[in-house]
Amino acid sequence: MNYIIFDLEWNQCCGGRDMENPRMPFEIIEIGAVKLDKKFNIIDTYSSIIKPKLYKKLQPHIKTILNYDESTLRKGRPFDMVYREFIKWCGQDDYIFGTWGSMDLNILQTNMDYYYLKPMPVPLKFYNVQQIYAAEKSGRTSEDRSGRG
Fold this sequence. Notes:
With 149 residues, this protein is an alpha/beta fold. It is 33% helix and 26% strand. It is built from six helices and five strands. A five-stranded mixed sheet has the order 3-2-1-4-5. The longest helix is centred in the middle third of the chain and has 12 residues, at 79-90. The protein starts with a strand and ends with a helix.
């Protein structure tokens, strides 16, 4: 079994909620991931910029946290192409996703729906790495996290 730890960057409408597309309020503009084996050794990495279809101008806050601008996005590839490549990169092996929070999975599914891509299998196996990190940092044990301790 492998672990796919991924992070998404996304943009939103600069014109506010009144001007956003209700089917896709957040548009993915980058997928980055690392593939780990069962011993947590890095096997491979993945990174791809996505050319936006809806929100071509970066929202000011997003622009401040990224190391690129609109000209970088114009060089990206369409979401459906990048998504298919990413899923192929994940491989046929049994894998579990890891994300920093649960938002990335929700945003990914919303973008997939927008492009009418096949949904991921349910139940989707994933770990919320942010929650695990917070629990470990606070010194809570695995029994504490399970609600039994």
